[in-house]
Amino acid sequence: MGAREPSSPWLGGPEAPIRARQAHTMARVTIELPQCRYDVVIEPGALENVGETVRSRAPHDRCALLADRTVSDLHGRSVEHSLRRAGYEPVTSALELGEANKTFDTVQRLYDVLLDGRLERRSPVIALGGGVTGDTAGFVAATYLRGVPLVQCPTTLLAMVDSSVGGKTGVNVPQGKNLIGAFYQPVAVVIDPLVLATLPPRALRCGLAECVKHGVIRDESLFEFIRARLPQILAADPETMVELVRRNIEIKAAVVMQDERETGVRAHLNFGHTFAHAIEATTGYGKIEHGEAVSLGMLAATRTAVELDLCDKALLQRLEALLQAADMPVRVELPPDDELTAAMQLDKKVSGGRTRFVLPDRMGNVVVRDDVPPGCVRAGWREIRR
Ligand code: GLY
Questions:
Q1: Fewer CB within 10 Å: C terminus or N terminus of the chain?
Q2: Is residue 45 part of a domain?
Q3: Averaged over 257-286, what is the pLDDT?
Q4: What is the mean pLDDT of the chain?
Q5: 213: Cβ below 6 Å to ligand 1?
Q6: What does the alpha-carbon distance between residue 105 and residue 136 come to, in Å, rounded to a whole number?
Q7: 180: CA distance to ligand 1 center in Å?
């Protein structure tokens, strides 16, 4: 990764277009796995040239642009033009892709788009949108003709720092979130932080919850960076976002490179998620946003860690202060404990019938425990129950 110097005499000049003035910051993070290697490119304006990137990784005459409808309205045309300039004939689909649509029904509709467009094994699928788009289109790419090249173009902060990198794809079923899916790595991830300017503030904060998570599990200085730069982050300042996204992807990349299939340390990325998934499942998918559930889940998990004497209360207070400063939810109405416990037991992270919890023992470090007494879990729920 590294900074690219401005090459145009117009850059930085008083009349320079905003886009050009911001274009000097870019970063690249490379993911190296036993079976593949791909770059995550983070660059303001990157979506305007995504066609070149796709062509360099998956040259073919046809491709599919699978986009969330709202994102497509905002950015679809420029991505489609870029694909055409790069010599593709794209078939396009713009579906409503909220958490409630992350289903087999949507998958079938996307298969139909690919089949009707006669996409072949070498034809790339470009996923343009947030986490649901990436997970659903990613699952389609993983299974259509037993796998076609996938380019992730995440347009929400959550998808940029988490779900677009590392190859998790899948859909929800009534029994639980993400219970059906595949590990399927993209051939490239293209991130344009300028699109964050059009992201609703609630969605931006949801992504921030995953950034806070990375700070708590691996990097105290990232936690402090978020705290110090909160106003710039919430204003989606492009330079700040390039740094924020790069730092988060570096953490995610290091974890995924160590443990692609989640047999060990990748589980650390699930900090807060055991509680979060139970919140989402019991309140109904889509009612509470995933990032909001993660914010609450991290607090519940940290309270559980305090009860276990793994960490002191100051850590909980520090976390709560940052989440509150970012206007994230810290309390929520919840169903009775036994309903929440039942939902937790359906989680993928249950092993041998025991629920596994990722718990902080200090800022920047977590441990996995499957021996947490029910009373400590109940204290976690009490912490966030309104
Ligand atoms: N979102 C957690 C992971 O990718 O493992």
A1: C
A2: yes
A3: 91
A4: 91
A5: no
A6: 11
A7: 15
Q: Is 260 in the pocket of ligand 1 (CB under 6 A)?
A: no
> pLDDT class for 346, splitting at 50, 70, 90?
confident
Q: What percent of the chain has pLDDT over 90?
A: 83
Annotated catalytic, 365? no
Residue 6 has pLDDT above 80, yes or no: no
Answer whether 100's CB lies under 8 Å from 288's CB: no
**pTM score of the predicted model:** 0.90
Active site residue 210: yes
Known catalytic membership, residue 307: no
- Is pLDDT above 50 for 160? yes
Contact 126, 64 (CB under 8 A): yes
Please state, in angstroms and rounded to a whole number, the distance separating the CA atoms of residues 134 and 129: 7
Give Cβ neighbours of residue 203 (< 8 Å, ≥ 6 apart): 130, 156, 157, 158, 289, 291
Q: Examine the pLDDT at 20 and tell me if it is beyond 70.
A: no
Name the residue of 164, 270, 290 to mutate for ligand 1: max ligand atoms within 8 A of Cβ: 270
Q: Given the residues 273, 303, 349, 356, select the one marked as catalytic.
A: 273
Query: Could you tell me the CATH number of the domain that includes residue 376?
Result: 1.20.1090.10
Say if residue 156 is in the same domain as residue 226: no
Could you give the C-alpha distances from 30 to 24, 111, 168, 254, in angstroms and in order? 20, 30, 17, 10
Dihedral pair phi/psi, residue 214, rounded to 5°: -60, -40
Asked if residue 286 has pLDDT above 90, the reply is no
Question: Has residue 353 got a pLDDT over 90?
Answer: no
Residues 220 and 163 grouped into a single domain:
no
Torsion of Cα atoms, 81 then 87 then 89 then 93, to 10°: -40
What separation in Å is there between the alpha carbon of 38 and the centre of ligand 1? 17
Same domain, yes or no: 183 and 280: no
